[in-house]
Structures are given as C-alpha cells and as structure tokens.
Design a protein that fits this description.
With about 160 residues, the protein is mainly alpha-helical.
Length: about 160
C-alpha cells in the first residue's frame, strides 16, 4: 500500500522483496520507539499521558522520500532501477562478481568515486562520475560489470582493511 516494493529491484523484473523486514523495522519498531520517546518526554513535561498510534504503511510512505519527491515534481515515480539511488548511476549500483556474489558500489560523492577508480585501476572513469546521458552511463556500467565480474568477491576485499 505504501508503494515500496514498486521501488525495489530492476525495471521489467518482478519486485524483489528484502529479507530485512523493512516495514517492521522502520514502520513498526523505529516509528513506535520515536512515538513512545516523544510521549514520555511530553508526559514528563506536562504530566499527561498520550495515545501513540502507529501505522506501518503510513510510516513506510513517510520514509519513501525519493519516490515521493519524484512523484511531486514529475507526476509519477520512476521504475525501479531508473533513478539515481536505485541503479541508474554506475557509481551507485550493485555488480555481480566472478563467483556469482555481488559488490555494491556506493560512490555518490566525487571523492569516493575518484578513490574507487584509483582502487580498481580505472582512472579514465573519473570524469564519468555522473554521466550526462544514458549511453555513457551504460558504457561505464558495462565496463564496471566486466571488471568486477572478472574477480571473486574475496578478491575485491578492500586493500585498506
């Protein structure tokens, strides 16, 4: 009902369900804890109790900041995998490794992208941090997919650890 599963996965595929109970944690536990703490704080100040009403769907909708902003600006959300934070940018995506596992690249900030390019030996990709068009993004993503897919996840273990 909150539209979250529509925003998970890749466009054209069935939505992926997380094995992390996001609605339970954000919508139930975290929202309940915040409500209870606010009620306790208010009770200490006023001496009055409060009724704390928690709705998981409401809380999930409140946490769907990016799709809600996209809806407000463009009149519709983008398909899963088509916006900056769900895979449209090569610098913020998930790539399959040579052993069939996955490596997440989260280099939205330029300094992190530049460091990532240094680590993988692809300094030539530095200027393509935020590609100007889909064709360039696809080319960078393809290069990264090929490179990351050439090694196992263990081989990609960061050298600075």
């Amino acid at each position: 009902m909150a539209g979250v599963s529509d925003q998970i996965g890749r466009g054209g595929e069935a939505p992926a369900l997380s094995n992390v109970p996001v609605a339970d944690l954000l919508g139930g536990s975290l929202t309940s804890a915040m409500g209870l703490l606010a009620a306790l704080f208010d009770a200490q100040r006023t001496g009055c109790g409060r009724h704390v009403d928690i709705a998981m769907a409401d809380a999930m909708l409140a946490h769907a900041v990016v799709p809600m902003l996209t809806l407000a600006v463009h009149g519709q959300t983008r398909p899963a995998g088509a916006d900056r934070l769900s895979g449209a940018l090569p610098c913020y995506s998930v790539y399959r490794t040579g052993d069939g596992r996955h490596l997440a690249v989260g280099a939205l900030e330029r300094k992190f992208w530049d460091r990532f390019c240094d680590v993988i030996g692809r300094e030539d990709l530095k200027p393509l941090h935020l590609p100007k068009d889909a064709a360039t993004a696809d080319s960078v993503r393809s290069d990264l997919a090929e490179l990351i897919g050439s090694r196992t996840l263990a081989e990609w273990h960061p050298p600075w650890r």
